[in-house]
Inverse folding.
């Protein structure tokens, strides 16, 4: 049973064979840090997080690089407009690097909450100016790039494979472009490697072509090469970056290095909110901090970050995902079911008697695991993976009613930790047990009160027994009487 | 009343007058990210954190830059030895930039816990290679630096003021150096601006002098200039960096720019542990994560990060500080006193009746504030600042017994928030009230139990009243009876 990825480059599912046995290098296009991360970021980075986790589960030594774009990303996503960071920084009257610092920290804060593992390296575009200049020099030397007025452009006509990722034809692209008489490019489809800076441009560096800054596409070619080599195993990113961003990356890297750039191109699909593309003017633009606090008019409540993670994993990474309050509510309730079961399991482990593990349960666990792996091997089918976790919840609840041995419970818990924890990142290693918070004092007090109530009933002091029950009901606590005694829970 | 700093450069206390009215630029030497932050880092970064906070309290618009050293810091802290990150990365068999990423994240995690505000920009040395090369070019052009075999050195003899910060004389330094016949430097006191890289050196960049990497001292000159300008208001750092690091920074910057580099040089003193300099071989090397978990043979328990912060603020930043288990215990108990008082104050605010604030209390608060400011204005005397907070604790406990108005309590709380919170960073805006955790249920239950006990006493059911008291004592809860009723607290 092998891991297969749908490779956007070949447009088919292919077995994943890394360049170096036992290792995998993966590069994912990271955020442009000029605002708080939103639902689109959650979709992309949770998707690739699970891929990294699954590769590691399979025993691969993964190097995971995800860049931080702090310079060069222009407002129109192509070669025109202003630098997105410079615009935002000017509004706040701070240095663009202070803006980058703030939103980089904000990004990692959100990703940590979503339980995404940190990339091994998060290289910054502005931290790799010499390397970018050097790649441009190579491209000029090899005839793939030309300088005009202090800017340098990639000459798409010199790279006949341009379009191989997106399936676009150069001729169609040329004719599709609006005629821009003012352009200094030879052809509209050419793209910027280096842009001449206006004197008042705050982020600029010296180069052989004068003061300027790198084009947006270049950083990914340069930083992936620096940290992973000229040919890398996996490149991930959002579908919206397939063209022109990734197409341009391929052109630059393959032209400069003369070898294949990326073996497996993986693209996550996009998100909608309440069925519509997110847009600030539509009032459906929701950032992650708003999801975590519930502070948005489209949200009825705060959701746990792991519930947002569940919602992403509920659909395939290559499928579009619609966020809505209802979908989040449903994900939260699914997560709660899993969490309650795992907590009950772990509580039971503490008191269960030791004896051999139940072989039937072990067999069922092995079957679950096989189905989980088969789903994940099939281009990371996380929704089937999640369904296996739900089956394990069902199994847990059955087993807990049947006086299981500690070994049986531990085997189930271990599988929750590995498949639900290590791979999917939705089962945590430890939970704050809210009922047992404050050093168990709450439980002690409730035990005492339950005892007083039992005494009152024994003494036929119905007034006191009722008073205790009613007062607790006021506090939101309900008693459940059974032949084995009385338990309590919060409404 | 003006703020005065002890300026290491002039060796006297001087009034702080910023270059630009209403603004202050401050640069602090940050960590070399090849290991977890330890007690020495806490001393330095808490000290400068309070300085930043106090400048902001005074209404200044502060830009706070603190670098991250990820390349060029050699194992002997001077021009010889290996790169500290490269050595550590090789041991772990990862890329030095992955090591830097890991320990940068670890550093900020610890600093966040210590309640240090994030610097506005945390520039990385490796992210400023072009700027470093450019400054070297200027120094060569102006005759302050020379190239030998692909390395570039600063010619100390060309900068007669070398030694002005540390008070050392060039002649003494020259004769004091051991004679190193193999050295390619003109004089032993010269220092590296650029080091030629051996072919197997993993972090290297192209330069006009061939492949190499920047000298350690250079980054701070370059990054402070980039983000704060050629002359900066304040430069901070540990005393151990006064020479050679800061002396070299002055030489480079002033030689290159032809103007004063730093107006106010501030140096924090160093730490000892149990009276001895920290050293891995002495088993007294304690990192911050160990303080927070208590996981070190010299520690009897875990300490809250804010207790470690208290300990640092208890002594002056220019005084040496001895960390010990006993000192941490004492800081923790001081912090607990403050926290208990502030919590009680905030609890009382919720139920206190509204009426005019007590003018005597307001007067006392104003006096406290004046003493606080006088102490802080006197070269940031945090231990006197802390003593003002303790006086406020005493005042709070007195006031709480005297049926105060909500306005009185709010005035006290506001002063706690500003002086203890905004400036010293030891009073938090919100506390998880452990007594009131779990939606206040604990408080409700205790209220109910206290009521039952009062009823029992009213009914002269001493057996029940005693039983309630004894059971609660078992749970670690003690009652405090007063004419106004009964309160409870955990032992």
């Amino acid at each position: 049973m092998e891991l297969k990825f749908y490779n956007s480059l070949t447009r088919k599912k292919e077995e994943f064979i890394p360049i170096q046995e036992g290792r995998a290098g993966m590069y994912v296009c990271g955020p442009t840090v000029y605002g708080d991360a939103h639902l689109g970021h959650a979709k992309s980075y949770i998707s690739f997080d699970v891929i990294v986790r699954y590769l590691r589960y399979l025993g691969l030594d993964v190097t995971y690089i995800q860049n931080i774009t702090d310079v060069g990303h222009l407002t129109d996503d192509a070669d025109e407009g202003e630098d997105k960071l410079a615009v935002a920084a000017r509004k706040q009257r701070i240095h663009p690097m202070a803006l980058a610092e703030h939103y980089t920290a904000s990004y990692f804060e959100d990703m940590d909450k979503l339980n995404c593992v940190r990339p091994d390296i998060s290289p910054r575009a502005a931290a790799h100016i010499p390397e970018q200049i050097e790649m441009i020099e190579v491209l000029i030397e090899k005839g793939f790039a030309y300088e005009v007025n202090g800017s340098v452009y990639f000459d798409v006509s010199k790279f006949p494979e341009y379009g191989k990722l997106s399936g676009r034809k150069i001729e169609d692209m040329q004719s599709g472009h609006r005629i821009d008489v003012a352009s200094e490019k030879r052809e509209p489809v050419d793209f910027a490697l280096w842009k001449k800076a206006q004197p008042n441009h705050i982020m600029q560096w010296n180069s052989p072509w004068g003061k300027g800054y790198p084009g947006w596409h270049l950083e990914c070619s340069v930083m992936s090469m620096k940290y992973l080599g000229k040919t890398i195993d996996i490149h991930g990113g959002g579908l919206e970056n397939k063209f022109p961003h990734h197409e341009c990356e391929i052109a630059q890297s393959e032209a400069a290095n003369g070898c294949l750039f990326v073996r497996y191109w993986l693209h996550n699909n996009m998100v909608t909110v309440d069925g519509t593309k997110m847009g600030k003017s539509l009032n459906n633009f929701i950032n992650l901090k708003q999801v975590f606090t519930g502070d948005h008019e489209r949200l009825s409540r705060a959701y746990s970050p792991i519930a947002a993670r569940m919602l992403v994993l509920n659909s395939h990474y290559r499928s579009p995902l619609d966020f809505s309050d209802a979908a989040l509510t449903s994900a939260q309730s699914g997560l709660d079911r899993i969490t309650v079961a795992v907590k009950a399991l772990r509580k039971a482990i503490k008191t269960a008697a030791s004896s051999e593990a139940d072989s039937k349960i072990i067999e069922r666990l092995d079957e679950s695991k096989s189905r989980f792996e088969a789903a994940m091997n099939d281009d990371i089918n996380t929704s089937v993976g999640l369904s296996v976790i739900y089956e394990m919840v069902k199994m847990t609840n059955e087993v807990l009613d049947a006086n299981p041995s500690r070994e049986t419970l531990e085997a189930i818990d271990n599988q929750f930790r590995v498949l639900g924890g290590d791979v999917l990142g939705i089962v945590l290693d430890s939970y704050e047990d809210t009922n047992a918070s404050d050093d168990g004092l709450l439980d002690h007090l409730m035990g005492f009160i339950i005892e007083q109530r039992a005494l009152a009933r024994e003494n036929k002091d119905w007034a006191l027994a009722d008073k205790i029950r009613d007062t607790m009901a006021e506090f939101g606590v309900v008693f459940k009487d059974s032949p084995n005694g009385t338990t309590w829970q919060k409404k």
Residues 433-438 of chain B have pLDDT under 50 and may be disordered. Chain B touches chain A through 42 residues (CB under 8 Å). The CA atoms of residues 420 and 427 of chain B lie 5 Å apart.
